[in-house]
Amino acid sequence: QVQLVESGGGLVQPGGSLNLSCVASGRILFIEAMGWYRQAPGKERELVAQITSGGTPKYGDSEEGRFTISRDNAVNTVYLQMNSLKPEDTAVYFCNADWRYYSDKDKTPIGGTFVSWGQGTQVTVSS
Question: Rg of the Cα trace of the chain?
């Protein structure tokens, strides 16, 4: 099982920046894609950005150019640098990880893919 713990949310003025972090913990695991989703009040959860284990990013429609996702596989951490924040970016941001069990003996992922979610961190953009 993977546990995800987010940090870095808070209150920021329009035009400001925040850097979110999410650390994944768990034994004998292979973490595939990691990403960030957000959910604003009254709206559906939407993709913000996702990054593969090889470092290939994918962004949602409104974030590319303002947001940058990165990942440090050595410490199982994904980051989301958010610049030029707008009031419409206000939401709860959730970390997400797709993972598989890993065989230390065979040095390979095994079995199917599971999905874990963090508890969310609030981002509020307001003057």
Answer: 15
Q: Give residue 63's pLDDT.
A: 65
- Integer Cα distance of 80 and 26 in angstroms: 21
Report the residue count for the chain. Answer: 127
CB of 80 within 8 A of CB of 96?
no
Give CA 78 to chain center in angstroms: 6
How many whole angstroms separate alpha carbon 44 and alpha carbon 87? 17
Structure tokens at 31: 């973490």
Cα distances (Å, whole numbers) of residue 31 to 52, 53, 101: 9, 7, 9
Strands 10-12 and 121-125 turn out to be parallel
- pLDDT of 64 > 80? The answer is no
